[in-house]
Amino acid sequence: MTLERPTPTAARDAIADGLDREALVTVFGRCTVDYDGRASSQLAAGDRHVMLKPDGAALVHTDEGQQPVNWQPPGCAHDVFCEPAAGADGSDGSETDGSGSGSGSDDVTASDTDTATLVLESTRSTPEERLLVCFQDVLQVSTFAGTDEGELTLSGTESDLRDRILDSPDLLESGFTPLATERDTSAGAIDIYGEDDAGRTVVVELKRRRVGPDAVSQLRRYVDALERDLHADATLRGILVAPSVTERAQRLLGEHGLEFVSLEPTDE
């Protein structure tokens, strides 16, 4: 169900029905956001998209970025009610009855639709947290009843890339022999530790996507750390494996005597 530009009480009733049905509820409009719990935060009025999930999660999104500007985790309790707008009853309209419930005496009726403020509340008991979203203008309310039994399957990870090389070492180079994975050094764990066909130690750093200078610096640190661990006569090679590298990274690889092999995490 979707309502466009509903009155506050119509929006309240639709949201309450969605919460009762354990539906996914979304609200878009101009609102303020107040959080109190492990810290305190306030967001002045702005156009925002709020999502209330059946598992108790609450998300507040703006028109920028992928992360919510405020959120509550699963397990929270959601409530919705209307308050008189500021000045409508001689009060500032900024506080509920303090009980955290939408059933308080301040909840307005259909006759107050032109002056009411829609309030969404998400509360958590342990730790004690409260997210309060007050809408001055509601542009859209939607409720969705759905199920999702599917499980997320990741592909194209660094683990996939590691497994490709372990299964077919010649993808790195002919004669390469993997000896260990996640070998500890003072600079961190080496993704793949092995030897080439000439018996030289090879340090392999894996990246699942195009990389820049930071990846080269990381590989250099591993090579330097391993040189300190091994005997003085040991010859080490460092190979960065990724789908591609930037021009600057390619220059740094040459400057440090390191190598690059282009390889995708999967063969698809």
UniProtKB/TrEMBL annotation:
EC class of the enzyme, as a word: hydrolase
Superkingdom, natural source: Archaea
Pfam families membership: NucS_C (PF01939), NucS_N (PF21003)
InterPro entries attached to this UniProt entry: Endonuclease_NucS, NucS_C, NucS_N, NucS_N_sf, tRNA_endonuc-like_dom_sf
EC code: 3.1.-.-
GO molecular function terms listed in the Swiss-Prot or TrEMBL record: DNA binding; single-stranded DNA endodeoxyribonuclease activity
Domain Endonuclease NucS C-terminal: 158-266
Compositionally biased region (Low complexity): 85-112
Key words, A-Z: Cytoplasm, DNA-binding, Endonuclease, Hydrolase, Nuclease
The UniProt record lists the keyword Acetylation: no
Region (Disordered): 65-112
Family: Belongs to the NucS endonuclease family.
HAMAP family: NucS
Function: Cleaves both 3' and 5' ssDNA extremities of branched DNA structures.
Protein name: Endonuclease NucS
Source taxonomy: Archaea, Methanobacteriati, Methanobacteriota, Stenosarchaea group, Halobacteria
Gene coding for it: nucS
